[in-house]
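Fold it.
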Amino acid sequence: MHIGHSHRKRHVYPLLAWVLAFIVLAFAVALSLVLFLVRAPYQGYAQEDVVVSIAPRTPSASIFEMLESKGVLRDWRLGIVALKIFHRGKTLKAGEYRFAGPRTPEQVVLSLVAGDVVTYRITVPEGFAADEVFTLFASQGFSTLHDYQALFPKPGELDGLPKEATTLEGFLFPDTYTVTRSMGAREILGAMTRQFARRLPDGFEQKARAQGLTLLQATTLASLVEKETSVAAERPLVAGVYRNRLRKGMLLQCDPTTIYALKRLGAWRGALARSELAVDEPYNTYVWPGLPPGPICNPGIASLRAAIAPANVSFLYFVAAGDGSHLFSADYEEQQLNAARYHKVRRAARAP
């Protein structure tokens, strides 16, 4: 009996060894196959690229299942494997991703871990009012109009604004911004107000004080200049006219401020009537003396420079010349003659 038992043992050990070897071989083959698939390029969509939006706090498995359904991954489990092998302990970042051409699961996961989201460039023109800025971003799907409007009267919650500012108007610097779908209204507006602080002309606040203006008032003056002329050479002249009128205690009588006042009242109809110049609203400089309480748009760098370096001229008036430029004058009689010339040009343009 003892001899027979030893005989059976000699047969069992080689069998176990073969089974173990087979298991090891099968595991090695399976591992090699998985590693091959993780590094094998794949494209399961017919078009050139595919965009995938990942909401915050989406579980990893759900993300990979979505990528499989979009044709980015051959099998969602390959994403799990790639994450565990190459990026153990890392998280997948939310946002909008664009995948183009064949990609390996390893490359796909790397993009998600790195947060390589789609970026967009949005250009805010000089002279846009805050509501136009809000509409520009919201119309392209970057947050909602309501979110922007809720922040408009809360300048203290963002960086780069003077303490006396009561709204964001004037401080959303016109520039080209790189944004992503995951950015909210606060983040976008914060980037714009920080850009305002960065791009202010050198010594702006000190030069404003030399003109008898605060930072807010100088920015407000710049916004009037921005709205009154698009001719670069005229900006210091327009600023000079307003400086002279302020010094003499004259009403500024700036049409764009009346339009802004009407918009605040919800009464703007697209054309300024003479009767509307009498509207009693703090932003209407035909009725209220001095500068309006704040900017009426977001001025560009040239208008900001003009506000702190107005031309040293005696002009007190200006009127459109009919070709985009303006005629300047130092007395009311000459202003009336210039206005008559402008109306003559307009009548001639309408005649045909």
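The longest helix spans residues 2-38.
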